[in-house]
Specification:
The protein is about 75% helix and about 0% strand. It is mainly alpha-helical. The longest helix is centred in the C-terminal third of the chain and has 28 residues. The protein has one domain.
Length: about 210
């Protein structure tokens, strides 16, 4: 009997990945303008899971963070529609960011940094680099949770939807770009990278 090997994961183009992440937010924004927050919430839920399905079809894998975010969308979106209370969908970004921030900083505090499991296939860093990057991302996520709380409690629903659509991802993108000097400073040399991969039982990078 011959064993069937699983289909290898594929690399998704960054622009396509960005489009799949941005698409549900744009649908949320348009649906809110045309039919209100509850129709927008339902459309956002459908679009989120459609984007996940496309990610799986195109890349044969789904990253941890979009998967967790989609699970929170399902819970808070369902509560929003069931109870007809838009506070729940407004709380969703707070909960997601607080969860990511607490997980990153908590894992680091207990000596179990989680960021290498998320980004280890993209970046190869020295331990100090992972520590610093984890702290930065953990603080960033907590700051975004606080910012969402301030925004949704201070402005109209339409303004909050616009912030969620056109504010959150650009802020995240700018923050990610700002980490380039740290990534360059603590990047593993090719020899060290090969040794680290060998220690993990993984093939050397091409």
């Amino acid at each position: 009997m011959t064993e069937t090997t699983p289909a290898p994961a594929r690399t998704m183009h960054p622009l396509l990945k960005f489009a799949l992440e941005m698409g549900p937010l744009v649908i949320f924004f348009v649906a809110n303008g045309k039919a209100g927050i509850y129709v927008a919430t339902a459309a956002f839920m459908v679009a989120t899971f459609a984007a996940l399905a496309l990610m799986w079809v195109l890349a044969r894998k789904i990253a941890v963070m979009p998967l967790i975010s989609a699970a929170v969308v399902l819970v808070f979106g369902t509560l929003t529609l069931w109870l007809q209370d838009d506070h729940f969908i407004k709380l969703k970004p707070t909960m997601v960011n607080a969860l990511f921030g607490a997980a990153l900083l908590g894992g680091l505090a207990f000596g179990r940094p989680l960021l290498p499991y998320v980004l280890g296939d993209v970046f190869r860093l020295k331990p100090e680099g992972w520590r610093r990057l984890t702290i930065r991302w953990g603080v960033f996520f907590l700051a975004m949770a606080v910012l969402n709380e301030i925004v949704w409690r201070s402005v109209s629903t339409d303004t909050w939807v616009a912030f969620k659509t056109f504010g959150y991802l650009p802020l995240t993108f700018v923050f990610a770009l700002a980490q380039a000097p740290l990534l360059n400073r603590y990047a593993l040399e090719p020899e060290a990278d090969a040794a680290a991969r060998a220690a993990e039982g993984r093939p050397a990078a091409e």
